[in-house]
Design goal:
374 residues, TIM Barrel, 8 helices, globular
Amino acid sequence: MKKITATIWLIPIILVIISALPTFIIAKAPASPPVLTSEPIMIPVLTYHRIIPRTTSIYDFTPEMLEKHFKLFQSLGYQPISAIQFLAYLRQPELMPKKPIVLTFDDGNKSHYTRVFPLLKKYGFQATFFVYPRAIKDESHFCLTWAELKEMANAGFDIESHSMSHPFLTHSQISNGDNTAYLKWLNDELLGSKTLLEDKLAKKITLLAYPYGWFDTTVESVAVQAGYRGLFTVNWGQNSLTENPLRIKRRVMDNTMSLSDIQRYISARPLALEIISPVDAGIVTSLPVIQFRLNNPALHSVTISVRSYKTVLNKPDTQGVYTFDKITKLKPGFCMVIIRGYDDRNNYYMGSWGFNYQTPTSIQTKSVSKTLRK
């Protein structure tokens, strides 16, 4: 009887040990590799111009409108970084914030000191100011002064080049074969601005934003020779961690954009474009036929825009090539090709590139400067 009682008493202990055994084994089993669900880091770059109480152009914003943009970026979790930081993070991508955004302000308007500077400090945002020295005065009611630029630079904000006098930089390469005067003028605009800014601000200038966004391979080559290491276009779309630092995409902001428009743009997915023609930053002397392939998953609709031309493209040919051959008239100058579309999950995609269109008789030698207004 005692033997049976002892056996019965041991049964609960054995059951407890057996029930704990699977848990112990599971705890010691190697964990399954985590499922990676995070999206690749994309970097939108935006540019603003005047921030004034009453707008007179679509490129003007009031301080209240700009602050709404800042609040939107903040609510969506974006972390504004400077253009210099962006280029540094391309070399060390592991340091890039999860949701970076680059805010830039062009032309050196006085409002950048009186209205933008305080707002940036209020929100703790970084930003970059692209200025052209011909607009900078020692005393001015309309433009930044050298003293104000130094104060902003000393406060940690990035000041970079926007050429010397804000002209259209592109020029016909084929009129008479003699480009010596043009290349000298172009070098004066790019190297001259860099040298003067470095002298006045006592800092290295390494970034250039193209005036009006106009450039081609010749302009790019002269800019690199002048010592610029980051070149900013106004082509639309997001920048990746493997972006070419000489072709940074940057969207000019205008006040017709709603907050939802801005959110859609900064969250757009990049299109993996295989550009066939015209080549990116190429010089074209006849009306172009636009051709490209998409390396993204198939989009159920593809829209192309080239200046005033805008249409939905049909399906690509059997080689996957989209063709747009409806351009019948173009004014000489820089042309941006914008490709947009949605996939089957309604994700929005965008990509772009540009080319310099010149007719055989067109020459752009006149420096067209932009006059800052209050």
